[in-house]
């Protein structure tokens, strides 16, 4: 709802400005590396993130950025929309 409200408000100020929410999927960042170092006592879902890395199921930051840029250039994102990046690629 916050995304839709911001999109509406900003479009009144500048019609060329738009806001959307994008869930990028699980991206292999430094934060992911830190999570994988945790014990189950520190982070109970650590096994899930270790499995994602082991099974090569994490997305690189570069690929995530390229996918997002492609969607922007192709004008596939609408003002106020919510998107799951991995469902769109």
Keywords:
elongated; 5 helices; two-stranded parallel sheet
Structure description:
The protein has 89 residues and is mainly alpha-helical. It has helices spanning 2-13, 30-36, 46-54, 61-73, 85-88; strands at 21-23, 82-84. It has a two-stranded parallel sheet with strand order 1-2. The longest helix has 13 residues, at 61-73. The protein is elongated, with a radius of gyration of 17 Å.
Task: Give the helices and strands, then pairings.
Elements: H1 2-13, E1 21-23, H2 30-36, H3 46-54, H4 61-73, E2 82-84, H5 85-88
Parallel strand pairs: 1-2
**Category by helix and strand content:** mainly alpha
Total number of helices: 5
How many strands, what sense, and barrel or not for the largest sheet? 2 strands, parallel
> Percentage of helical residues?
40-55%
Series of secondary-structure elements, N-terminal to C-terminal: HEHHHEH
| Rough outline | elongated
What is the strand tally?
2
